[in-house]
Fold:
Amino acid sequence: MRAGVTLPRLITIPVSHYCEKARWALDRALIDYVEEGHVPVLHWRATLPRHTRTVPLLVTMGATLKSSGEILRWCDARTTGGKHLYPTDPAHRREVEELEAHFDAKLGPATRRWAYSFLLPDKRRALEVLTPGVPPSEARAFAEGYGFFAKLMARGMGLNEAGAQRSRERIRAIFAEVSGRLADGRRYLVGERFTAADLAFAALAIPAVAPPSFPWLPLFDRLPPTLRAEIEGFRATPAGRFALAIYRDERPRMRVSLAS
Structure:
């Protein structure tokens, strides 16, 4: 970091797929930043002073960006070398933005609720997934009050057996939509190059396909057999294979530094 320069601060729940969507865009645009990770619920101490409860939250010298979509557009305005995430062609840009909004509104909540239906009942595994990259004091508080925090999280997500099943069905439906779009042999969802539509789908599909290089998840072989079987089913679809390939081929090396 250059003397006197304050880096943007990305406030996250590190394992969050929406936070990874923002992180991916920052890394791709070669923007230096500091990540400030928190556990769920306790992240409100960082977000509520900025009038939001959600992450990712990017705090810059000139603005506070309160969604992954805002962060992608902020990054795109600072991107050079032909690596823009939003096409200049108006029709293609509209299609990219519509797909991104669709994945944000439908796929992201579904994969999150479905994944947490496996995670929250298992305190040991939940701590393994949710506490890396956060302050030690938060990790301890989260572990000590896990029952309370898990109930708050389950209530906030409407997490129950029926809700998990609805989310599973929504993931399957969106994967079917994407598989249909890919049926003509195209490499990307819109046009001839990587866009925000591809990034959003691959990032928000992370809980369902568990990319091997995503660092915040346990090794696949350590997941419960039932969860492994469902992930294998999602991976086997054209959409699942696409998400894994996009993450493998288009996700740059993480350049994040964690706040101390």
Remarks:
- The CA atoms of residues 128 and 218 lie 8 Å apart.
